[in-house]
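Exercise 7. Predict the joint structure of the components listed below.
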Amino acid sequence: MRCEQIQELLSPYLDKMTNQQENKMIEDHLDNCFTCSYELEQMQRTCALLHNIETHEAPEGFVKDVHRRVAKEKREIFHSAEVSTPRKPGWIAASVAGVALAAGIYLSSFLPVGAMVAALQDWGNRDQDKPNVAIEEIINRNKQQLAQENQEQQTQTNTQVAIVDNGEGQANSVGNDNPIGNVASNIEPETTPTVDQPAVVVDPKMAESYTTKIRVEDIGDSVQKVYQIASADGTEMVLRPSNSTVMDATTQSKVKVVSLLVDEADVDKVLASLGALGASNPVQSRVNYTSQYTENVEAIASLQQSILVLEAKDEITVAEEAQLTEWQKQRTDLEVANQQMDEASNQIKIEVHLVEQTQP
Amino acid sequence: MVSDEQLVKKSLRGESQAFDELVEKYQHKVYSLAFRYMGNEEDAYDAAQETFIKAYRSLRTFKGDASFSTWIYRITTNVCLDEIRRRKRRILPLSLDEPLATTDGNEVEKEIPDNSPTVDLLYEQKEFSQYIQSLLDEMKPEHKTAIILRDIMDLSYEEIAEVLHCSIGTVKSRLSRARNVLKKKLGDRELLP
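Solution:
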């Protein structure tokens, strides 16, 4: 019986996967037991034989074969998709436009994000009571938007051509620096920083959100308070670039929107904390974004198809290469957008509208 | 040196040469592992190819919390074991002395190879490796897997646990049983000095 127990431990003992206590037990036993010592020896020999077994290397051309099969598979997939989706470059432009509308994530070029970034940076640099939220990330995200805005302004004319020319336009017509951003900024409604803009919190199936209003005296101060609530509850906070000069149509008040990404379990807690700050009763809403997500997937497939056509050529011109790079970039942007939707799918958004009371 | 994780990210961005680099880097390990599972070059080649194609399709699911090597070994293991299971289902038990029917209606005599090595063969590493392989092929898949990953591929217990998605305790007990089974097989054939 004792030998059986010891023999069960011989394999991990050989690999030094037994603990000190086991080692002592095994070694004491081996000193006095010929059978177990023999078993250990035999097991060592078995392992040695296996270690010396001939190794095999992949034959030459293996990598090329994988490459060829991956490329072939991609072509087949997209070939069958052709039946339902015309593969004109113009269609791509149109779909990119549609998708960009759907994905209108992060983009609100009409808002002065720069000022906000500066303010946030300033605030983030203060040492005291720095909430444990991803400030850096928010700032960087906003910086990216700023950069995109600049690009958009430079290339806006081109994009408009691309959208209008979606019937038989050249593939090159989408070839500006950031067609997705451009299109979004052109189409996005300009004065509604509310729930119906799919922000970071888009769920591929259902996006659930709560909207609440807080009347405040000073927007800047209040943003920080909301920040603190968010960080205290461990929620991820997303400051949507919003403009403190946006006016509520009926009350003429300044409004700033702050979005919080909250786990389902934390919703009540965060809402209660906001309530204590004077927030109105939250309005719950649900929006289905499945079709938008799907549109992205379709546009990615379409881009992929065009990319493959170019990639399959033995030689490509400089212009084609630029086009290829551009399409790859567009595809990445869309994939990133979808990934963000995926990531946000398990969270609920609480949108806090900070409404500054007008001075009497 | 670009990390595996960076290469995965680049591949996801559509840079096909980044994926080629990953294939280049892991081809021999994956092929070698597939060879041990499948037992011959042709099947190993197919399985290794299939492994990389599956990996390409599911690159997005690679989270980087495990290493790329254990991730790709896991795919290799699944591809090979699936194929072995599929074949087992398809192949009906045969009687040893009955002639085999071929697809064109003819019949051939079955040749059952006698795999027992002679003393001479023991000195031929290739033959001996083949014989060890035939013993591995007789083992239960879970035992075979444990031996291959630990004693042939030289993975740590932690890595094996990652590949098989099981606990280190399970690796320990499975490997112990597997080694004892193989030890007995070798002992019975007087192949252990």
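Discussion. Confidence is low (pLDDT under 50) at residues 78-91, 100-139, 155-204, 241-245 of chain A.
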